[in-house]
């Protein structure tokens, strides 16, 4: 069935479009069907306090289990979803699954804040705040159990409308985070205007920071900037003990990365949480002389 749909798409559009457009089109058709075919998966990556090693949250990262292509990563299909408006459906699906998981974990005594990525289009969606209110009520979650991650570029696309949406969401009590901080075209002025709670340092600055003096300087300045503005600062892309230690020394509040855990299927999170133990040397070092 999937193959037939793809062929249909190719037959109709091949004449008019180049090969890559035809491929995009088939991907899009398939993506449209991915929800009802149950091909989307919610993965989550734990967010950890770098000083205490405690798990404080998790980020929802969507995966598409394509019947032939295998695991398709979001960088490949989110841009499509955005261009076509399918992102609305996708975002709602991710929200729903995230709320479900958050409720399940809370019932087991694990109270984690769940972070969900929003795209440019989502910020233009005037129904989003209403949708959220409904979601929280149905899952009996407090607004504080959600954090919404938005990139600088998504905000700068239409800063006025973005600010309007973000103010409504923030007024409801949801946390807002600036994702991939430092990589987009942006102005620092919005940091002062927007109701943001968190800065997320992009992994490109973090991955090799223990070896790269320039990266370390950027990370240090970003942590200071965030803290001076009263924001929580999170680093993504922590792949080694050395980077965790360095970030903790610089005062970075939280971190995510392969060193702690890759993104894992949502239904494995409870088992992961029950096994998690922060490396004692890191946590003791960060906590000072409390050992
Ligand atoms: P992001 O929000 O900045 O997410 C962080 C990305 O870094 C994730 O890639 C994550 O798997 C990866 N990562 C985490 N720790 C490490 C590490 O230690 N080393 C390395 N090399 N990578 C690490 P992923 O899952 O492929 O997602 C890519 C991007 O796709 C996300 O970047 C986000 O912008 C977007 N995305 C993912 N899920 C959604 C979604 O549900 N909705 C929207 N709108 N965008 C999404
Ligand atoms: Mg993110
Ligand atoms: Mg990011
Ligand atoms: Mg990113």
From TrEMBL:
According to the entry, every stretch annotated as the EAL domain falls at 24-277
The protein's name is EAL domain-containing protein
Taxonomic lineage is:
Bacteria, Pseudomonadati, Pseudomonadota, Betaproteobacteria, Burkholderiales
């Amino acid at each position: 069935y999937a193959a037939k749909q793809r062929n249909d798409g190719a037959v109709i559009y091949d004449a008019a479009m180049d090969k890559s457009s035809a491929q995009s089109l088939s991907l899009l058709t398939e993506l449209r069907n991915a929800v009802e075919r149950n091909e989307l998966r919610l993965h989550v990556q734990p967010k950890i306090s770098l000083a205490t090693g405690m798990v404080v949250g998790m980020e929802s990262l969507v995966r598409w289990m394509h019947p032939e292509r295998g695991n398709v990563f979001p960088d490949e299909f989110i841009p499509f979803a955005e261009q076509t408006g399918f992102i609305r459906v996708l975002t709602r699906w991710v929200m729903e699954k995230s709320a479900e998981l958050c409720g399940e974990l809370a019932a087991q005594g694990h109270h984690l804040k769940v972070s969900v990525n929003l795209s440019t289009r989502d910020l233009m969606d005037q129904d989003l705040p209403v949708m959220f209110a409904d979601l929280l009520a149905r899952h009996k979650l407090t607004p504080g159990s959600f954090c919404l991650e938005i990139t600088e570029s998504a905000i700068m696309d239409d800063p006025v409308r973005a600010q309007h949406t973000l103010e409504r969401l923030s007024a409801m009590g949801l946390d807002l985070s600036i994702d991939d901080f430092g990589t987009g075209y942006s102005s620092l002025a919005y940091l002062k205007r927007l109701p943001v709670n968190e800065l997320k340092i992009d992994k490109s600055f973090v991955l090799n920071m223990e070896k790269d003096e320039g990266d370390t300087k950027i990370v240090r300045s970003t942590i200071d900037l965030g803290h001076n503005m009263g924001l929580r600062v999170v680093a993504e892309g922590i792949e080694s003990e050395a980077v965790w230690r360095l970030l903790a020394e610089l005062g970075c509040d939280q971190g995510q990365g392969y060193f702690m855990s890759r993104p894992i299927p949502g239904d494995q999170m409870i088992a992961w949480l029950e096994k998690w133990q922060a490396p004692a040397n890191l946590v003791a070092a960060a906590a000072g002389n409390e050992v």
